[in-house]
Amino acid sequence: MTAPTILLTGFEPFAGDALNPSAAIALALDGTQMGAYRVQARILPCAFGAALHVLQQALDSTAPALVICLGQAGGRSEISVERVAINVDDARIPDNAGAQPVDEPVLASGPAAYFSSLPIKAVVAGLRDAGLPASVSQTAGTFVCNHVFYGLMHACAGRPGVQAGFIHVPWLPEQVVHRPGQPSMALALQVQAIQRALAICLEFRGVADLRQTQGRLD
Amino acid sequence: MTAPTILLTGFEPFAGDALNPSAAIALALDGTQMGAYRVQARILPCAFGAALHVLQQALDSTAPALVICLGQAGGRSEISVERVAINVDDARIPDNAGAQPVDEPVLASGPAAYFSSLPIKAVVAGLRDAGLPASVSQTAGTFVCNHVFYGLMHACAGRPGVQAGFIHVPWLPEQVVHRPGQPSMALALQVQAIQRALAICLEFRGVADLRQTQGRLD
Amino acid sequence: MTAPTILLTGFEPFAGDALNPSAAIALALDGTQMGAYRVQARILPCAFGAALHVLQQALDSTAPALVICLGQAGGRSEISVERVAINVDDARIPDNAGAQPVDEPVLASGPAAYFSSLPIKAVVAGLRDAGLPASVSQTAGTFVCNHVFYGLMHACAGRPGVQAGFIHVPWLPEQVVHRPGQPSMALALQVQAIQRALAICLEFRGVADLRQTQGRLD
Amino acid sequence: MTAPTILLTGFEPFAGDALNPSAAIALALDGTQMGAYRVQARILPCAFGAALHVLQQALDSTAPALVICLGQAGGRSEISVERVAINVDDARIPDNAGAQPVDEPVLASGPAAYFSSLPIKAVVAGLRDAGLPASVSQTAGTFVCNHVFYGLMHACAGRPGVQAGFIHVPWLPEQVVHRPGQPSMALALQVQAIQRALAICLEFRGVADLRQTQGRLD
């Protein structure tokens, strides 16, 4: 009998970047054991539709107990634990396959939104306790990240007991050397933060999330 | 027979401020005629529950064809046309009645989110054409603004033909003189922007919104 | 006998913009009378060297009692009263004549810096009292604005009794409609702010500046 | 005969923080050997006057060939290589000894400013090449950091051949966990960046700085 699985996904680079921290984190944690669970990583294409196809295959083949999809949020300075995925694709730039949907639903018959089933407040509190900058975010944008987050939550709506959600991570330092003034976070810290986030999620399996306000004004 | 109504709401001041631009705009436009329509303004208390109670009374008594609720978004530099309201109250600070709900639903039995029924892309395009800074926003936060936006869309879900949505406006210049470095927008421009937004909404009654990408990266 | 003069300069547009608020303000106030003083406006080319040549001619022909040079600081949200000009030209982009000096002195034999002789704290305090966002700035950059500021102060070093300095102003609203998220300030407010700044300078002729801390952290 | 010395200073914590990255970096590099040179660290009090007294003693006792003073610049996301120190103390908050000078000169008889004698462009270029975010900064503020920078350059004006300057560093991650949205940089990266900056300075002893534009707009 195999160990229960944590599925951790990252994205391939996009928008001209040579790197994507989300993929680097997923690969860094691939195969690690967390208590009884084993992390399995997958890299998703940064393309509407195709990303969800790869995600669905991974969900089917690994039957995970916990899924966290990671994505890069350039310009943010913290680990961003996303609260909600919305049913809209609205691409500011073309995806890696050249598609640029504008104001189309992710799923024509789907609900307006899905909430993360991760303990988002506990994750943020735990990361901050460990000295790792983190916040809850109210928007995963309207590009491929939100698309995957929405598709993930839709797929998991029929899988009771599966914890699922999305976390945005900052640019790496080497990605901002020619974007003066932009924030970044070292890869070692990002990996440490995501590993801790996975552990906190496991601790909160079957337990209600913390109720604490953590917010920013906007 | 009376003129059809545009309902325009603002909020009373909160968080220690003496002013709230959303109220100033609503009052500035109260009673103005826009084609066949007359603007009726209401000022909502900045309090969970009570704000929706006042809004519901206004909806019942004015039976509007178009409703825009306005709120202040300190720190934003543009007119923010909100896309989506989410079913959560998560207050970073107490409201004006002292309540501070954390991660509670606006409506226990409601859907996860409602989309604005305003032509949000047309409003942003029209404001920019007029030299007025504006963007679509993917989050109205989780304080009383989002609460009212959600409650508004829920109430209008049963009123076909009613256009409804939420617009966030920046601080006024006099509100930032002791918040060095923060952006603001002159009241005259804010009033002009909201008046134009109302006009654009009326032009797009029964017409599909523009399909154009306008976004920012985050 | 002619009225004593206030010289107020703005810059022509640069960096692809069709407008420059500094020129619009200078022209709006050209010819206005402030007590015994008359405002004379000049528009400077946005070019190293040439700008100082035009400024020098204006100083010689108007023999002003007060000189304020204005420039555009895209990305700032407030009226920025500059404290100090430094002896360096370091252009991130070419000027309007195609020159792009890197780390060259404005004046080979000049001192490292000149301080403004305007009552910078009184100006900021007075603007804030009038509800107009303003701050003291410690850097006028290293482009043509700082170049003109340095050249102005050098020229006035030999003119006792002449008040001189530099004020940066934000983008106009119409300049940011395609720069989503960037701050701006309405022209009417900018004109009002600069007119008030001139009046405050006149009030403080021969009087020590206010001593009050007003700063931001950075 | 002893090894020639690199003097590297940091500051004690201030403004209620328990940490100051500048001190952590200086201590981390204390005693390290860089080619023929040995790093000697000193921690300065965050107090006007006293900081310069300790610095002067360190200069006298170590007779360094290279001096870099480090300071914390909360809110900046990069290593900030300062270009210029200005002759003004203007404290937004009291220093650690309770003093809060407003618009007083650092040195009554001193010049308006001193430029860094470090190869600031080479340092920024070298850090960026190594994937470490860095920029030249035109202002070290008007608090104790600028005070020390000015005092350092004044002291070194009479020491030909001594390279001297100031570098601001970001908050550490653990300092921003309760400052949501603020940027930070991991200590390991900060240490690596400063060590590399020291090495670049040594490489450029007696050599002209790179001439390259690197700037930001503001």
Automatic annotation (TrEMBL), chains A, B, C, D:
The keyword Ubl conjugation is assigned to this record: no
HAMAP family: Pyrrolid_peptidase
A GO term, aspect molecular function: pyroglutamyl-peptidase activity
Taxonomic superkingdom: Bacteria
InterPro entries membership: Peptidase_C15, Peptidase_C15-like, Peptidase_C15-like_sf, PGP-I_bact-type, PGPEP1_Cys_AS, PGPEP1_Glu_AS
UniProt-annotated location(s): Cytoplasm
The protein's role, per its UniProt record: Removes 5-oxoproline from various penultimate amino acid residues except L-proline.
Top EC category: hydrolase
Active-site feature positions: 82, 145, 168
Stored NCBIfam families: PRK13197.1 (NF009676), pyro_pdase (TIGR00504)
Main localization of the protein described in the UniProt heading: cytoplasm
Source organism per UniProt: Ideonella paludis
Subunit structure: Homotetramer.
Name used for this protein in its record: Pyrrolidone-carboxylate peptidase
Enzyme Commission number(s) of this protein: 3.4.19.3
Keyword terms: Cytoplasm, Hydrolase, Protease, Thiol protease
Reactions listed under catalytic activity: Release of an N-terminal pyroglutamyl group from a polypeptide, the second amino acid generally not being Pro
Gene that encodes the chain: pcp
Membership in a protein family: Belongs to the peptidase C15 family.
